[in-house]
Amino acid sequence: MPDCIFCGIVAGTIPSKMVYQDDRITAFWDIDPKMPVHLLMIPNTHVGSVNELEERHEGDIGYLLRAAQAVAKEAGVGESGFRLVINTGPDAQMSVGHLHVHVFGGRPMTWPPG
User: Fold this and answer.
1) What are the pLDDT digits (tens) for 40-70?
2) Beta strand 101-105 with 37-43: parallel, antiparallel or unpaired?
3) pTM of this prediction?
4) Angle 2-31-57 from CA coordinates, rounded to 5°
């Protein structure tokens, strides 16, 4: 998608503090972190949100969630704990229209979230 910020990060035309990239997913530090560890993980193929997922995306989304283990461990929160969050739609505060998983960690969290 030409006007998608996250597609630009995947393509390398928009700079980011990347922590991992392969042919299926990209992980990078959030530019406005809400936690000591706040990473974003995205599929390299544009998917607007969870509402746009199709059967053909299942492999990449499963791969992305499995990769979250390694990314969280590399960020130092694999053992202490981390939270994965996927916002969908405006009421959930989704601000970029490209499916993304927030990896939060680095301090104790409460429940329920805001």
Assistant:
1) 999 999 999 999 999 999 999 999 999 999 9
2) antiparallel
3) 0.94
4) 50
Question: Within 13 Å, how many C-alpha atoms sit on residue 48's CB side?
Answer: 5
What DSSP element (H or E) covers 43?
Answer: strand 37-43
Per the annotation, the verdict on 100 as an active-site residue is yes
- Token pair, residue 100, equals 């993304």
Catalytic hit among 38, 98, 100, 102:
100
Name which of 26, 11, 27 is nearest 72 in CA terms.
27
Query: Looking at the predicted structure, is the pLDDT value of residue 2 above 90?
Result: no
Q: What is the DSSP letter of 79?
A: T
**Rounded to whole angstroms, what are the CA distances from 12 to 5, 8, 9, 65, 73?**
10, 6, 5, 22, 25
CA distance 85 to 40: 10
pLDDT at 114: 67
Give CA–CA dist 14/12, Å, rounded.
6
Quick one: CA dihedral 40, 42, 46, 51, positive or negative?
negative
